[in-house]
């Protein structure tokens, strides 16, 4: 195998896609694509396979049109709200929007049905695959349901020894890849957060899910979950249902995320949905805040919460951090830490939990200049992107050069593009399969109103495409919110090299004349005049100059008054300014570490036959960077001499800082290899003489002979990334006798 | 300076104790020892200086006697409680104990007064020193009061960029020094903890402080703090006080920690202590639980707490971890994570906070064999220890070889000794001054009743001697508590190589005969018979054999019955046992990371004159291991060529994984050195040519010339600990021209 050009950590046999290669003799494989058994290429999106027939083509075109209409109507609704249109007018527009959404999702469903013939069998293999991964993870203590001996708490998990090591490797690499590389300012803020901070950020008012209660037992459920479960089950089991009814239920499923409390409640009533455990009637849906609440100090008067994200700790420190950075932009701050969400009913195992580790970056930048000095270093990357337009027109995610996406304006700006590129490099270095990683742009109606652009790094796993990293341009929203609430200006200054002349509007009400005309109302009129914007003021000036008076609506008085020429002086004055004061924009890449790790577990897992062919063995193909243990050491047979050599090697590995495990049990060498493969240990050192030993690579099973003194050095070189296994294969003699033990 | 044997990181000038060397031109120095200005050696304990006069000697002897009496009486009280003595008897003994304590503390006070002549001036310099450190720490953002723009929350702090880097360096070293070195099983459990777990551990019932409330405003205070402040102020300000009154107040201060809620309350009433802010009357003291309480899930019915320590997460996982370790003892599990204590009124800045990082180790060991395989590696260490006996007899901490302490039984066992040694190595490697580090043994009455032995690593800082690491042999307490509460046996098994014969007691009540004799009471009699211990049963057997019957007290019936020979068969049977089942002991080193870091800040801080002598400059002498930034790079003058070289060096440092900072400002090189010294950056690279540059070491200010290509390599070597600065000094030419800039 030496002649093969081998890129570690893939084995030379796995050039084809690992999950689907028959050579690897896989037991578990799944794909939501209907073509899994015939191609080794995996569709980039489960929703949008590559080949279509004519009927499908027609449906797809209809869907694209409908989506454009939805987008158009959505924009119209937002514009009406901004312009302050009347409520009945808005309501009508919203109704139209919902109707369009229903039509859209109806077409979507037809489309799905059109190629879901083998959908359920694929779901079965998906579940079997997941079960195999999860069984291995639990058995080898990658994670443990927390407080298991007390029957646990839903949504809380411990990382056991190998999981904890993977996590700390991922975080160490995150620090190296982001914090060190960009000279970011890392901070570490408490989890306990006073209410005022989360009031300002909007979490106290808006961080909610809709909940219903069992009216007798008080048990709580997520309203949308119940409705979803009801619709799904009905569709699956009630085959006598009318086509209209089925369409309706499908429509409900499609628009589930957008339903208001009122609509959710009326649907639950209409369908007669009851509490799943007791069949008791349910309360109306009402918002439940997802933050864990507590009390700071002994008085019980100072409310606090466990932070739902780490970002706020950075925002409130902006002023100090800006100063620390020499009052210069751009700069980034970063934080790794626990965050908490008191989910109503956690599902999806490790993906939706009540406490999790976030790693967040807040990159502060001048809103007028979002270029990035190191952008060129990632500009040539090419990977799966799923821009808004492609989603709207029913196409699939496609491979786009990053530079093209940025220059064509698909990605809003260079800095956002830079971080998308860096996130891609980060995830793929960890071992995330680049064919099952895509960057999906938020649709206009998915984004917060203040966001300039937002992309999610989504990783495909057995639960579907999972949002693992969000990369958002949040504009000036957060800093402004804290400025308003705290009264402390969180702003940046740009000093001009020489003062600049600017025109400033000056409105000078003549109080004497106003007082004579408006008496007690004078103050309100003065304030209204002073509050005018430039356009309004200049129009008033023109009218006063031509007509001598002007009608003026004073909203605090609720009436129109007449302003005469002598009552106010409006002018533009030239001023010299020495600096520009502005609120920076923030670009926020936010990493759900637990989700990334779970997807990594799935992407790294495969099975292969034991040598005898009588057993399927589990392997995690973690790159050395991620592997919880870098190396196992075992004597070939139980023998004092070999054991002493093993201890010596263990000592040299410790000195070199290599995490390793020593296995002195008399178990067969094959069983010991299997144990270590199942933990994803990349290298196994077998002591079969006192002078030299073999090192075996996990995926290729290639072995080399290395002298006892050199072992730690070789392992360190390969795990630190100084050498690849290929380099090492060339450097040392291979150990050809595939021992009887495998 | 090349000829000096230089041990990095101390400067060659600082052979004498750093805080007191006049050569270093220190502005801030303090010591609680009265002899600070004349000796360079620092007393190992502020309480027990080395030289005494005759009066002091007499007092000290009296104190020693009294302490022995206190200890004796304390043991007596405990024994009486264990034996279930009558209440009046116990009360009398407790009263006697308190009287002895008062007498003891009276002598202690006299002793303190005897040499407190310059006590207050030393307190002033201590405060000034602390203020200087804290000012620097806050100004350079080592830490920031959390949520500062909202006027903060007492007891919550953020680590700013350099503080966060120090923290992550300390934790990375902790992982290397403990987890990797011992192959510990690191786990990562949630902070949110259900009530049942903390009920079992005792925290729900016992983790409290006594609190009083302002009866009008509801403001809360720690009862002992108020009493302490009152006594201290009174003693300082009321000079007309009678000797008796003064003695009484001093006694109160001495026994403050041991006062019950009732006594505290009556003292507060007696002294007329009111709320400090309002002078309103205060409530009686009552216990306030220090855990942050919350609710898990939406129902509000499932109470949870933010964990007050990380250890419980390990204990509840014992069974899985033992299995993971191949069902073998000893092994250790470890955890790093946040812990929370809702302090009533946090004081002492960074030392007593409401949220902090703990690093805890639980080493599980066979109670019958507490030897440690690597003990010999630390046995020869010698450092300041403060055994119980020395504390009782009024001596000071003294330098004891660890092996002596273990072999003489001062330290309870080898494993405990091993960890004490490892903790010593850990702390001193970080830069903790070994002259201000001592291991203090808990007095018998300080320890929990179940603890076998307990030592605190105490570090002296401006707040006094601070407990930073606790190293306790907690015996089987925690595992037993969770076994009892959960019903899941948390035990270990020792398989015998061959079955062992053991004698087992067999009690077989003859139900027919008992039924005839006792009718409805039969069940109670049977149970009482079966519950007999070995001794009681064998006595009964003997009596039955000699007398044919025996009087037997059945406590559930509340009366004595007569048991006849035919009613019960008592025998001893030989059985073969294949294994021993037992609850392991746990030895727990628990690290308060924030406290260690704060003490490290104080121990690392010094000031020195600027070259012109017109300014005092701050320096942190962090070892490279700990330093937040390893290296600064600056061009000597602002010049395109030099800036390009600086960028090149920065790139090579990033590639080598060295955290660094680039300073392109035109500020004088002296100012830039001062800035970087104040952050504790050990090396500064000055670009003054395009081929070679100077590297300057922070404390010695020695400079060497190194080629541009080699810079990253040299810095990496020294920061990784591969070379020392001395090595490097020999290897490269020194740069002798001390530039005009320093």
Automatic annotation (TrEMBL), chains A, B:
InterPro entries: aa-tRNA-synt_IIb, aa-tRNA-synth_II, aa-tRNA-synth_II/BPL/LPL, Anticodon-bd, Anticodon-bd_dom_sf, Gly-tRNA_synthase/POLG2, GlyRS-like_core, tRNA-synt_gly
GO biological process: mitochondrial glycyl-tRNA aminoacylation
EC number(s) stated in the UniProt entry for this protein: 6.1.1.14
Domain (Aminoacyl-transfer RNA synthetases class-II family profile): residue spans on this chain: 127-624
Main location: cytoplasm
Record GO terms (molecular function): ATP binding; glycine-tRNA ligase activity; transferase activity
Presence of the UniProt keyword ATP-binding in the record: yes
Annotated catalysed reactions: tRNA(Gly) + glycine + ATP = glycyl-tRNA(Gly) + AMP + diphosphate
A Gene Ontology term for the protein's cellular component: mitochondrion
One Pfam family cited in the UniProt record for this chain: tRNA-synt_2b
Enzyme class, spelled out: ligase
TM spans (from-to): none
Transferase found in the keyword field: yes
Protein localization: Cytoplasm
SMART domains in alphabetical order: WHEP-TRS
Keywords attached to this entry: Aminoacyl-tRNA synthetase, ATP-binding, Cytoplasm, Ligase, Nucleotide-binding, Protein biosynthesis, Transferase
Subunit structure: Homodimer.
Family note: Belongs to the class-II aminoacyl-tRNA synthetase family.
Name this polypeptide is given: glycine--tRNA ligase
Species per Swiss-Prot/TrEMBL record: Tetracentron sinense
Upper lineage: Eukaryota, Viridiplantae, Streptophyta, Embryophyta, Tracheophyta
């Amino acid at each position: 195998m030496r002649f093969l050009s081998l890129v570690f950590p893939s084995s030379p046999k796995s050039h084809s896609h690992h999950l689907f290669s028959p050579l690897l003799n896989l037991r578990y494989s799944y794909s939501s694509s209907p073509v899994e058994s015939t191609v080794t290429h995996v569709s980039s999106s489960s929703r949008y396979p590559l080949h279509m027939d004519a009927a499908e083509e027609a449906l797809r075109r209809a869907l694209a049109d409908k989506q454009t209409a939805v987008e158009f109507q959505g924009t119209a609704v937002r514009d009406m709200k901004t312009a302050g249109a009347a409520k009945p007018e808005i309501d009508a527009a919203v109704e139209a929007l919902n109707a369009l959404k229903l039509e859209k999702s109806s077409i979507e469903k037809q489309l799905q049905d059109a190629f879901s013939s083998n959908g359920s069998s694929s779901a079965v293999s998906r579940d079997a695959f997941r079960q195999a991964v999860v069984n291995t993870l639990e058995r080898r203590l990658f994670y443990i349901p927390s407080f298991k001996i007390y029957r646990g708490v839903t949504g809380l998990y411990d990382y056991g020894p190998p999981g904890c090591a993977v996590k700390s490797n991922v975080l160490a690499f995150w620090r190296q890849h982001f914090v060190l590389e960009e000279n970011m300012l890392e901070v570490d803020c408490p989890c306990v957060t006073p209410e005022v901070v989360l009031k300002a950020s909007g979490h106290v008012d808006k961080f909610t899910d809709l909940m219903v209660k069992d009216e007798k037992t008080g048990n709580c459920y997520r309203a949308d979950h119940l409705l979803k479960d009801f619709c799904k089950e009905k569709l699956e089991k009630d085959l006598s249902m009318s086509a209209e009814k089925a369409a309706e239920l499908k429509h409900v499923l499609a628009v589930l995320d957008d339903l208001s409390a009122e609509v959710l409640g009326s649907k639950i009533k209409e369908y007669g949905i009851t509490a799943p455990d007791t069949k008791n009637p349910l309360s109306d849906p009402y918002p439940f805040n997802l933050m864990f609440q507590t009390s700071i100090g002994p008085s019980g008067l100072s409310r606090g919460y466990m932070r739902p994200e780490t970002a706020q700790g950075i925002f409130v420190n902006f002023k100090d951090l800006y100063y620390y950075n020499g009052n210069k932009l751009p700069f980034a701050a970063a934080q790794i830490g626990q965050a908490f969400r008191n989910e109503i009913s956690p599902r999806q195992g490790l993906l939706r939990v009540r406490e999790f580790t976030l790693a967040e970056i807040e990159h502060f930048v001048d809103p007028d200049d979002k270029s990035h000095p190191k952008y060129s270093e990632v500009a040539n990357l090419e990977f799966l992107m799923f821009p808004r337009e492609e989603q709207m027109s029913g196409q699939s995610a496609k491979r786009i050069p990053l530079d093209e996406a940025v220059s064509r304006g698909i990605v809003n700006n260079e800095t956002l593009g830079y971080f998308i590129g860096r996130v891609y490099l980060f995830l793929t270095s960890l071992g995330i399969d680049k064919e099952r990683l895509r960057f999906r742009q938020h649709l206009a109606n998915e984004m917060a109103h203040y966001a300039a652009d937002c992309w999610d790094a989504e990783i495909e796993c057995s639960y579907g495409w999972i949002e693992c990293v969000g990369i958002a341009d949040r504009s000036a929203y957060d800093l402004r919110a804290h400025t308003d609430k705290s009264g402390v200006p969180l702003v940046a200054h740009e000093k001009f090299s020489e003062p600049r002349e600017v025109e400033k509007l000056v409105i000078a009400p003549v109080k004497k004349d106003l007082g004579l005309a408006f008496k007690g109302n004078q103050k309100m009129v003065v304030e209204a005049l002073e509050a005018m914007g430039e356009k309004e003021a200049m129009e008033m000036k023109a009218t006063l100059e031509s007509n001598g008076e002007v009608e003026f609506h004073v909203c605090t008085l609720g009436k129109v008054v007449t302003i005469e020429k002598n009552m106010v002086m409006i002018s533009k004055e030239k001023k010299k300014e020495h600096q520009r004061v502005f609120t920076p924009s923030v670009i926020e890449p936010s990493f759900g570490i637990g989700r990334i790790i779970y997807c990594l577990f799935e992407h790294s897992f495969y099975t292969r036959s034991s040598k005898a062919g009588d057993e399927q063995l589990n392997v995690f193909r973690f790159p050395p960077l991620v592997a919880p243990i870098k190396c196992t050491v075992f004597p070939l047979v139980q023998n004092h001499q070999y054991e002493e050599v093993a201890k010596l090697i263990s000592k040299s590995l410790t000195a070199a800082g290599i995490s390793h495990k020593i296995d002195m049990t008399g178990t067969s060498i094959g069983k010991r290899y299997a144990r270590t493969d199942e933990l994803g240990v990349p290298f196994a050192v077998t002591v079969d003489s006192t002078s030299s030993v073999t090192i075996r690579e996990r995926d290729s099973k290639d072995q080399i002979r290395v002298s006892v003194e050199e072992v730690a050095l070789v392992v360190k070189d390969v795990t630190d990334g100084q050498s690849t296994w290929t380099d090492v294969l060339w450097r040392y003699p291979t150990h050809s006798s595939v021992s009887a033990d495998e």
